[in-house]
Amino acid sequence: MIAPRPLTAEAFRPFGDVLEATGEPDRIINQGLCGRFHDRARLDFGDGRAGVSIFEAKPRSLPYRLEMVERHPAGSQAFVPMSHAPFLVIVAEGAGARPGPVHAFLSEPGQAINLLRGTWHGVLTPLHAPGLFAVIDRIGDGANLEEHWYDHPLTIG
Ligand SMILES: NC(=O)N[C@@H](O)C(=O)O
Ligand code: NI
User: ipTM score of the complex?
Assistant: First the structure.
């Protein structure tokens, strides 16, 4: 069984970015009433363009049966919760044809993620309703989805 670890920017850095309001803001704006944590995601949309979509995903529960991971070779993908709830983040190492070791993370309320272009990941996995997320990813022509189905599903949790 793969046990989820707490989601931290440091641990997640090889796979993507953790978006959160921690530490001092980079800028104080709006007459001092707002802190801006500026430009925190390594976005990459290749030859496409940025799109914002809304996902309404069914909540899952732990232990979670991981049947597949996927990756987007043409662009990054960010998941921004629209509810104040943790969600499950699953990624796998490797840039080759097959994913490497799998890692699972449990987010804190208030954290969002941006997956780097080409990062193997489990699909969006909320753990609480409503599974509402804003998703920022590549809109464009051409294939942008590769899937790897495990012969024997992995257990997370
Ligand atoms: N297919 C799709 O739009 N979503 C997936 O890429 C996902 O990671 O959830
Ligand atoms: Ni995806």
Answer: 0.92
